[in-house]
From TrEMBL:
Record-linked PANTHER family: DNA MISMATCH REPAIR PROTEIN MLH, PMS, MUTL, DNA MISMATCH REPAIR PROTEIN MLH1
Name of this protein: DNA mismatch repair protein MutL
Sequence ranges assigned to domain MutL C-terminal dimerisation in this UniProt record: 436-579
Region Disordered: start-end pairs: 369-391
Residues annotated as domain DNA mismatch repair protein S5: 209-327
Family: Belongs to the DNA mismatch repair MutL/HexB family.
Length: 621
């Protein structure tokens, strides 16, 4: 019997490794830009076409590679970052595993052009599926330019599982933003299908955050800075009133490497305790500098997870630093005993003797009952009563009783109205069962039925009604629109702009009237007619976008269902809204006309039925 265990060919091993390293085009973008940063580049350009499926090109002005290095970088476990095992405990570079270039070359057509600054000619290497097609000298600028074409061309199953172009583009934008935030002193640019989405000059961290997320973030940022023997913490956090319903704008960097750490995230949220709205998440861009020997970053292929030796101390430092910054910049209520609250600083010592204390002057002969007559006649009249006779009685004295007459008439009208309402209620109770409706605590609707009564959650019911209505409008493209008197311009960051652009046909079907206005901006000319909650057009669109992204991260639902769900939750009446009889009746009628009236959008019951039998059992009858 022959041996059955054999070593895998390099091409097969590289494709297996590519499944861990390169999950989608954004993974390749991350690896290439990190290599450019490790090469010492201060100017990096990213060019993508067809959401990275057709082309991903990264151009940098780093140190470049020699002929031998250019060929060797495509071999597995080939890296310039490590020399011995001890180097794993002192890693400060971005890439060190030595698998990125080999994995990318195994599943794409790769063209590499590189030249060192001291060389006159560079090297051009073309590889297709781990096979070197050509290698020759070429005239090229100093640095490296690498192009990845036809990603996953030899792994069709992986290519078929890629999402749509807008979704893949958003993933690329996320990776790009993370790296750009971590290195604000490096110039970055991003071109997608011929359009420049980002142009980020070298700048400070605050300016980089504003350039990435928008100018309106200038007033939302609060600086954080803390130096200890364990870590050095710095960066910015967002003010509580600008918190969003999604976790998107939360960034932790450890030694300039983006990490995902729920434990550290909890430390930040704990610092916002009692000042953050429910189910809201603040913005933060925080940098941790720590000794590489105290952490292990080689626990995940994408290097986004880190293990710490002293997690509890780091947690306490982050929590206290964030809480201190919120208090220092008057985000949380504080008492400032150094603030001047008196007027003594307005008085100079030289003029203190000239100050005259205020005095009160009054006329002891003043009679308030003569005020009206005195304004009419120049001479004052006095009232005297002698021997039972009244002399000089003021005119219009009978008007003094008009107030009591008015109050008694209002009370009479109120009593009459109460009697009529009571009579109406008596007559109303004589109507057939099912028409008697009450509202409890401005939250529930109680309606009598033949077997007892039902209790309806008014917000959940309205959400269900609007959800099914919006779904029907999306199917029929017949959403009613309410024209805006003054159109509003909404500025978005590139990721949100791409998302809205992808949803534009369905948003129009819901009744929105918006159009693209320049770079990363939309003009809102109309909103759905069902939205009568008093919000502005820009607020409606922004809340719809936030709810859509939140549902997209938590629920596996279709695009149209997500839109209908997001808009229904924003447009529905909220807890605490007072409803009249007609409004409650309208909600009940429309709810029972729905396809699924009993289940809310979150999967909880909308209607609870109480029978007379259950009530009698409660009273032990």
């Amino acid at each position: 019997m022959s041996d059955i265990i054999q070593l895998l060919p390099d091409s097969v091993a590289n494709q297996i490794a590519a499944g861990e390293v390169v999950q989608r085009p954004a993974s390749a973008v991350k690896e290439l830009i990190e290599n450019a940063i490790d090469a010492g580049a201060d100017r990096i350009q990213l060019i993508i076409k067809d959401a990275g499926k057709s082309l991903i090109q990264v151009i940098d002005n780093g140190c470049g590679m020699s002929v031998t290095d250019a060929r060797l970088c495509f071999e597995r476990h080939a890296t310039s970052k490590l020399r011995k095992a001890e180097d794993l405990f002192a890693i400060r570079t971005m890439g060190f595993r030595g698998e990125a270039m080999a994995s990318i070359a195994a599943i794409a057509h790769v063209e590499l052009k590189t030249r060192r600054h001291e060389d006159e000619l560079g090297t051009c290497i073309i590889i297709e599926g781990s096979t070197v097609v050509s290698q020759e000298p070429v005239a090229t600028p100093a640095g490296t330019s690498i192009s990845i074409k036809n990603l996953f061309f030899n792994t069709p199953a992986r290519r078929n599982f890629l999402k749509s172009n807008p979704v893949e583009t958003r993933h690329i934008l996320e990776e790009f933003q993370r790296i750009a935030l971590a290195h604000p002193k490096i110039f970055f640019s991003l071109h997608s299908d011929g359009n420049e989405l980002f142009h980020l000059p070298p700048e400070g961290l605050k300016q980089r955050i504003i350039h990435i997320f928008g100018n309106n973030y200038n007033q939302r940022l609060v600086p954080v800075e803390e130096s200890t023997s364990i870590i050095n913490l710095g960066g910015f956090i967002g003010k509580p009133e600008y918190a969003k319903k999604t976790r998107g704008e939360q960034y932790f960097f450890v030694n300039n490497r983006f990490v995902k750490d729920p434990y550290l995230n909890h430390a930040v949220l704990n610092a916002y305790e009692e000042i953050l709205p429910a189910e809201s998440y603040p913005l933060y861009v925080l940098f941790i500098e720590i000794d590489p020997a105290q952490i292990d970053i080689n626990v995940h292929p994408t290097k986004t997870e880190i293990k710490y030796q002293d997690e509890r101390s780091i947690y306490a430092i982050i929590r206290s630093a964030v809480k201190r910054s919120l208090g220092r910049y008057n985000i949380t209520p504080t008492l400032d005993f150094n603030q001047e609250t008196g007027f003594s600083h307005m008085i100079s010592p030289k003029n203190t003797e000239d100050i005259v204390p205020p005095t009160i002057q009054f006329n002891p002969q003043f009679n308030p009952f003569e005020a009206e007559s005195s304004t009419k006649e120049p001479s004052q009249k006095q009232v005297s009563i002698t021997h039972g006779h009244r002399d000089n009685i003021p005119q219009n004295w009978d008007t003094l009783y008009e107030i009591t007459k008015k109050a008694s008439s209002q009370q009479l009208a109120f009593d009459q109205q109460a009697i009529e309402q009571e009579n109406d209620n008596e007559n109303f109770q004589e109507k057939p069962a099912g028409k008697l409706i009450f509202q409890l605590h401005n939250r529930f609707i109680l309606s009598q039925i033949r077997s007892g009564f039902i209790l309806i959650d008014q917000q959940a019911a309205h959400e269900r009604i609007l959800f099914e209505r919006f779904l029907q409008q999306l199917e029929n493209h017949q959403g009613a629109s309410q024209q805006s008197l003054f159109p509003q311009t909404v500025m978005l960051n590139p990721a949100d702009f791409e998302l809205i652009n992808d949803l534009l046909p369905d948003i129009h079907a819901l009744g929105f009237q918006i159009r693209i206005f320049g770079k990363h901006a939309f003009v809102v000319e109309g909103i759905p007619a069902d939205l009568g909650n008093g919000m502005s057009e820009s607020q409606v669109l922004e809340q719809l976008l936030e709810a859509y992204k939140n549902n997209q991260a938590e629920l596996k639902i279709s695009k149209r269902e997500n839109l209908a769900r997001s808009l229904a939750r924003n447009a529905a009446i909220k807890v605490g809204t007072m409803l009249n009889i007609d409004e409650m009746t309208d909600i009940i009628d429309k709810l029972f006309a729905c396809a699924t009236p009993n289940i809310s959008l979150s999967g909880k019951p909308i209607i609870i039925t109480f029978t007379l039998k259950e009530l009698l059992e409660k009273f032990d009858k």
